[in-house]
Automatic annotation (TrEMBL):
Pfam families tied to this protein: HGD-D
Molecular-function annotations in GO: hydro-lyase activity; iron-sulfur cluster binding; metal ion binding
EC numbers for this chain: 4.2.1.-
Class of enzymatic activity (EC top level): lyase
Family per similarity comment: Belongs to the FldB/FldC dehydratase alpha/beta subunit family.
Protein name: 2-hydroxyglutaryl-CoA dehydratase, D-component
Organism in which the protein naturally occurs: Megasphaera vaginalis
UniProt xrefs under InterPro entries: FldB/FldC_alpha/beta
């Protein structure tokens, strides 16, 4: 960064820093391409530390798909993918990504920008030289990234992690994943034509841990009652937890937000002012295509989101220099664990957020996030006395979300929470 930029960063708010760094990641990738350096497209919870240590620019299709969805640009990308034969039942992140990948390919071959790519966030994304994926959140990623590699004729690095049928993570699982890490390093050495930089890798690991420590600190403010933090803000800032946790971009922004939240607590400035009537846990991915509507509908009932297991998937805390510790961090995502562990995580989120209710996104695009939704809701209701509702939706396909149904479920949850309080419930 230039000195002027560094000075400006000192005066930026956390929100301004977020708005500066997210597009800067795309700019960094475009500059890498121009300079002849490698660009990697990566799955959201695949470890970026290996590529960053080798000076490879990182791009995250899931983050771009969410951004495209939030800006109402998903239908164009979905249409391109579906016209090519990708079924509507496939994850909409995947279809959005395959759609803009196809358009970027056309642009590269013809030198002309396809109409659907004009004025789209996808137009800022450079095509990759390699891709890396990890199945610690879902197995769709394996086929999705295999298809990317086949379409683009580039190398795919896959880090396979076992599903945790028991918890804590077993020693043999950690040993296996360390082997996967070492194989990825060997692949990168072949791709880059030079030895892996273990010294820089150690520094990147330390940077990752500083970013994640600040990310976890932000989430801890949801425990205040009233809360200075609106949980929906975590969904927005999550973009840097995904795409920049191994860079100082995330640490800088998250540290700013921590300081702002500390000031709000000291000044007793709460997210909903005096209108925090109830607190809810949101289970599942955000409905990016209707983020404003879902937030406003809850806010209209005075329901503040103070719990979500979703942002915690980027709590990849580990000991730098210890590959076994890193392996454990990248396999313990709660949706890569057995029902018992998943239930424990959800209960803890509800307790930490001092939540009165649970709203669950039955996401057509994400089978792994949705498969055990009802069991999780029943467990929370039985063990904590917290009511729950489930609504149908999608992360980026607007055809699978109905505002009226969502509003009806929010109304039902508000009534159940009010009844619970009237009866002297736990929350």
């Amino acid at each position: 960064m230039s000195e002027d930029t560094a000075v400006n960063l000192k005066t930026m708010s956390a929100k301004d820093a977020l708005g500066y760094f997210l597009p800067k990641l795309d700019e960094d990738a475009r500059n890498a391409k121009k300079e002849g350096r490698l660009v990697c497209w990566s799955a959201s919870v695949a470890p970026p530390e290996f590529c960053v240590a080798m000076d490879i620019a990182m791009v995250y299709p899931e983050t771009h798909a969410a951004g495209i969805g939030a800006r109402h640009g998903a239908p164009d990308m979905l249409e391109v993918a579906e016209n090519k034969g990708y079924n509507q039942d496939i994850c909409s992140y995947c279809r959005v990504n395959m759609g803009y990948m196809e358009l970027l390919k056309q642009q590269a071959m013809t030198g002309k920008t396809p109409e659907k790519l004009k004025n789209s966030p996808a137009s800022a994304v450079p095509l990759p030289d390699l891709i890396i994926t990890c199945n610690n959140i879902c197995n769709t990623l394996l086929k999705w990234y295999e298809n990317l590699a086949k379409e683009l004729h580039i190398t795919l690095i896959t880090i396979d992690v076992p599903f945790n049928h028991e918890y804590p993570v077993t020693q043999h699982a950690k040993d296996y994943i360390v082997g996967e890490f070492k194989h990825a390093i060997t692949q990168l050495e072949a791709i880059c034509g030079r030895p892996f930089d273990y010294d820089k890798f150690f520094e990147v690991q330390k940077q990752t841990q500083r970013s994640i420590a600040a990310w976890n600190k932000i989430a801890s403010f949801l425990q205040y009652k009233p809360s200075p933090l609106n949980g929906f803000d975590l969904f927005n800032f999550m973009g840097l937890a995904v795409a920049a946790r191994s860079l100082d971009y995330a640490e800088i922004t998250f540290t700013k937000l921590v300081k702002e939240l500390e000031e709000k607590v000291s000044q007793q400035k709460w997210a909903f002012g005096d209108n925090e009537k109830s607190r809810i846990t949101w289970e599942g991915i955000a409905v990016w295509i209707a983020l404003g509507h879902t937030f406003k509908e809850l806010k209209g009932k005075g329901s503040l989101m103070t719990g979500s297991a979703y942002p915690g998937m980027w709590d990849v805390s580990y000991e730098p220099g210890n590959l076994e510790s890193m392996a454990e961090a990248y396999t313990r995502t709660y949706i890569n664990c057995c029902l018992e562990r998943r239930g424990e995580v959800l209960e803890q989120v509800v307790r930490d957020g001092k939540c009165d209710g649970l709203i669950i996104h039955q996401n057509r695009s994400c089978k792994n996030m949705s498969l055990l939704n009802n069991e999780g809701g029943q467990r929370v209701q039985k063990n904590l006395g917290v009511p729950y509702v489930i609504f149908d939706g999608d992360q980026t396909d607007p055809r699978n979300f109905n505002e009226a149904q969502f509003d009806t479920r929010v109304e039902a949850l508000a009534e159940m929470m009010a009844d619970q309080k009237a009866q002297g419930g736990n929350h």
